[in-house]
Description:
Elements: E1 4-8, E2 16-19, E3 25-26, H1 38-57, E4 60-61, E5 70-73, E6 76-82, E7 89-90
Antiparallel strand pairs: 1-2, 3-5, 4-7, 5-6
Amino acid sequence: MVMLLEAHESGVEQPYLVLEHVDAFPAHRALVPGRIRVEGLEALASGVLDALAHVHERDLVHRDLKPGNVLVEPKRPDRVKLTDFGLAARSGRAGEP
């Protein structure tokens, strides 16, 4: 997930979030025929699954997973960051296997 560094909503005219800068690109740019090898695609899928497991372990559901909300590091397709948690919700299944 993209790390939240700071959040302000009370006492300011416009609420805002400060997120970490990620040197990456949206996954949909990699998912072009001929641009990514099978190994890279497998690494990308594995990275997305690891990120989702991290989110789900914290009792959250992303609810808007799509290539544009997955950031990929240029030389490490297995290292991804999920973004845009605007539709995320608690799963209500905390503690279940």
